[in-house]
Amino acid sequence: MAEIINIPVVAPIPAKSSASPWAPLGEPLFRSLWIASVISYTGTWMQNVGAGWLMTQMTMNPLMVGLVQAAGAVPVFLVILPAGALADMVDRRRFLLLTQGWMVLASATLGILTLTSCVGPWVLLLFTFLLGLGAVMNDPAWQAITPELVPAKQHASAVALNSAGFNVARAVGPAMGGLIVAAVGCGTTFLLNAFSFLGVILFLYRWKRPIEARRKTQRVWSAIGDGFSYVRESGLAKSVLLRTGTFSVAAVAMLALLPIIARPYGARGYGVLLGCFGLGALLGALALPRLREKLSVDGVVVTAILIFAGMTFAAGRTETFALLCVVMLVAGAAWIGILACLNVAAQTMCPAYVRARALSFYLLVLQGGMAVGATLWGALANKIGVPDALSVAAVALALGVLALRGHRITASELELAPAVLRD
Question: Is the pLDDT confidence value at 399 over 70?
Fold first, then answer.
């Protein structure tokens, strides 16, 4: 269940519900998968630290460092739409077993090659691409299974718990990865990531999935076309995709260039900085319900983007480690505020029968934007330097807010439907 780029899992903007936020953990199936997921997410963040740091050991070229982020996201352009269609058409359990096994093989092979000193910059990018390919194929089907594990009244709480688990891993995983890289090298983090998938694979193997509803037989490209037609005619869907695209392209600059920013502080410092970002995301997710009592959804998005823009600018100009940790903490909180609104809207913008396909379009824009942005900011930093590139990214974030003033997302549009998906 790996995500090579920083694909967010965020807490939903809560709808009114009588269900306890902890109730899904009382369901044995959900509880088992939740524990396995947290372990897998932790492995993913360790892998991210190892890959980013390994590239800086081989080259300090900002473009190559930025390509580590991009390589994991490039597959989104190739397979996310067919993956979304397949997730609506085939047995998701078997499909997920295939994608999880693919990621185990890719991560383990990269670990072995790294430990035997057989990895160069392009080999690292190749295996990052292969691991990203499995993650992209996995995403739509994975996001669609939570409603099958909990009662309908617990769906919103299940999404929130999935979000909390991800953000706990995001806070802990990078710090652990930095310590492991410093102690025994990057290859070990890749092998540990491979092992982290095994809990999810065991769950899927033992899961007795309910009998599926009869599906309409159609070709993959025909199914993709139906999804595209629905998204094209939905005003909410277009607003969500436009906001997601403008944000993801500019926002990824900080994360893509962070290995270079953190270079003076070593592998441990890099892990701590990513951990601060994850901790900020966790704190932001916890504070979001109270913030929503004071601001509209659109107000949360605009405010958080402007804060993130300020932190992006500060990341390139801050000269002390302690202050940089504060910058990453605030940036993480802002990041989760933005994507909470967009992600819940993406989950609810289409009915259940086309949901995986709609999510595949959202993931295409989100991850594709990050892939383009990581390459763009790496190339720009190579020409004008990291601080100035981050300054340009900050300005781009602010201009995106102004350009999309007419594409508002209102609170009524973000009420969770009964069949809400995990993010």
Answer: yes
